[in-house]
Amino acid sequence: MKTWSSSRWKKPAQGALLATTLVLGGCVSVPYADDVRDVRSTLGPRWTPEVPVPALTGEAQRGEDIDAAVKQLLAQPLTADSAVRIALLNNRDLRAAMHELGIATGNLVQASLPPIPELELELSKPGGEHELQLGVGVEYSLSDLLLLPQRRGVALAERASERARTAGEVLSLAYRTRLAFYDVQARRQQLELRNLALRNAQARYATAAELEKVGNLRALDLATERSAVESARLAVAESENGVQDAREALNVLLGVFGAGTQWTVDSLLGDPSDALSKQDGLEARAIESSLDLSTLRGRMEAAELRRKLAATEGFLPDVSGGVSGEREDDRWQMGAHIKVGVPLFDRKRGERISALSSRESLKARYEATATAIRASLRQTRFRVESTASRAKHVRDVLLPATRKALEETVLQYNAMQLGVFDLLRAQDNVTNAASTYVDTLLEHHRARAALEQLLAGRHEGLELAPTRISAAASGSGSAPASDAH
Amino acid sequence: MDRREFMQLGALAGGTLLAGQALAQTSSNLAPVRAEKPRIVAPGGQVAVVTPNGSTLPWKNVRGVKVGHLVAMPVKHTFAPGLEVEAWGYNGSTPGPTIEAVEGDRIRIYVTNRLPEPTTVHWHGLILPNGMDGVSGLNQRPIAPGETFAYEFTLNRAGTYMYHPHYDEMTQMALGMMGMLIVHPKRPRGPRVDRDFALMTHEWKVLPGMRRPDPNAMSDFNVLTFNSKAFPATAPLIIGRGERVRIRFGNLSAMDHHPIHLHGLYFEMTGTDGGFVPESARYPETSVLVPVGSTRVIEFVADEPGDWAMHCHMTHHVMNQMGHEAPVTVGANARTIDQHVQALVPQYMTMGQAGMGGMEEMGMPVPTNSIPMMGGKGPFGSIDMGGMFTVLKVRENPEAEDGSGWFAHPKGTVADKADPAKLAADGIDPDVHFG
Ligand SMILES: [Cu+2]
């Protein structure tokens, strides 16, 4: 297991941004576009290939272009990738996160500015024949100037931490959008299957009603079939609700409302794949690319630099100096002075303790996080493999077996060995197997998204628990037989 | 659903046509051989027994002893085209060959066991030395697989008997081990017969799609046979008009007696496995109940030519592979049901709502190795019968018949649609209302 070491987290500072901000120092505007570019370059190597990172655009490019792009994407049936693209373009929480990064950027810019010189003008009229006297003094804090690189270092580390955190937010949005999209797909498919189960129950009931009408079935059997229809109807209603919930959850992530919510999905959940799980060294990759760990590293570095700053401040006398001139009798008298404040009592000990504790706390949290990432990776990877093999088993073995059973039931029905109710129950078994397939596929895609997320560098907010969205299915398939008479 | 509607279900048409062709082809192979002039085998011109769909055990004469050989063995058996099973029998068939001898003959029968378990042979109805009676454990030790035993005794009573295992008989008989044993009297009794047939009735349980009869069955027997054949594979009995005919029935079914009914004639029962029925005790009949573990012999003269049905009168015994778990649909509106079910299972169609006649003609795909709705082709359409059903063909010239043809009815002797003019003349109103 890798542990934190100072050499690992001391990464070269991002100089380019600082240079830019210094040049632009005069006119103030939000650094959105630069922050976005910076986040994009942070994500670059981590970004999984299918996801369109360029979709993340700067404020300068926003406006009608973006709206048109989002509109165009929404007009097509959504895919997981197009949903992510829309979310990156359109999600306001993400925009808020970018502006929050701007706060850290602002702090950095501020911390990079040299101290302001103090100018003192003095006019006096002593009275009598004395003329008006003018005194001019300039004072400059030398210790602030000396501490400037260190303060800038702290701000730089804090911004690096923020940058990693914001990049993590981007990943998180993409991940949650993906999950929400899969959820919509799966619930749509389950709704279809629940409708099929309802039609099956209705067919059983219609048959029972017909048989009862002509005196071939007990009222008990009819009532039993009726109750099965009503449970199946309820299952459909629940399923419809589930689809609506899933759409709304995705709407929030896509940042759409009004007409924008009219999007459609026409693809089915993809087949299981095991491309990712075959690779080795995934744990190391997850640790390497972890933005959660980068964030902590940035905060650790900032704490360390704050500690050093406090130490320097504690020992460095407060030095300021200046020149002054006094005009007296049409002559300038020039002078200079230096002011030294001796830190006899306040040697910034408290700040140093805080900074040191903060650094140690973050270090421990870093190690805990690394452990959690490794565990999550193993868990997720296992789930990817397990769900893939389960889904394949359902697709290649269980489903064909239920279909074969249905075919054979048809033959046995034709041979008058079984009745129409047996036949419909066999058909219902096919529906239920399909339902299991959808559930397993959803779990697989969720696990894959989680694994990709981990490898891209984000482990916070992973949803690793198995999901079952077909719970409502049980209502329709379990009605007692009424073939015997 | 009627046949026209059924044909509109195009998806099914391909498979059913093929099935129909296969059936037509194979059933012709099962046509009986040309009826031969009866062979005389016993004193007084007594004719040889014919075992429809079966054979007779050949004898070797060794110093005055008739020597025969029965091999107990597994056999592949076809009840009717489309239903082949792994059965057990003798000398490659079920039932085994009919053993035919004459009163006073000394016979020696070697029994070789090629079954996976021991067996014995019990000579049902014969009175013989106790050690030859074949009850495993009681009269002899069982014949182990691979062993050959010899049974030897003198046939001192004429009559109609049977043979079957008396070791694990439940299994061995359920799988088809049985045969007829006929002893002609040394001095003929009663009027001489022109034809003498042996028919062993039996019942089996073979679920559609299975290949081995179920020896545990106590009910639900679904294959009912004459000489282990189910209609339409039962060979017809061809006889000449005015000929005196004897039919010997045996029953080694597990649970059921069979009331065998003959059309077109009446008969008298002349014998059982106990012996001959005295003339004074005979009475005319058209059905004879053949109880389990018994033989019944009937004799008659058929005066009316034609194709006459002969069958067990238990209606479920003239069906093939009946199931009885399905709900009754008689009277139901098939359209309502079809509309709902076909949306989910396109191959479905409601059956039986207008009765079950003509089911076989629909030719629906059924499980492999099954004959659930088989019927036979008749001159006027399908004969929707199966199981214990065969035809008595009474002909002017029986030797010219091969059994595959149908009786040519003299003009005006077949029931047909009534002439409206005749209806009116006779004062019959077909639209009359009752109740
Ligand atoms: Cu019967």
From TrEMBL, chain A:
Signal peptide limits: none
Coiled-coil regions, chain positions: none
Family annotation (InterPro entries): MdtP/NodT-like (IPR010131), OMP_efflux (IPR003423)
Family the UniProt entry places it in: Belongs to the outer membrane factor (OMF) (TC 1.B.17) family.
Protein name: TolC family protein
TrEMBL record, chain B:
InterPro entries referenced in this protein's UniProt entry, alphabetically: Cu-oxidase-like_N, Cu-oxidase_C, Cu-oxidase_fam, Cupredoxin
Gene3D superfamilies: Cupredoxins - blue copper proteins
Domain Plastocyanin-like span(s) in chain numbering: 77-187, 212-328
Protein name, as recorded: Copper oxidase
PANTHER family cross-referenced by the UniProt entry: MULTI-COPPER OXIDASE
Pfam families noted in UniProt: Cu-oxidase_2 (PF07731), Cu-oxidase_3 (PF07732)
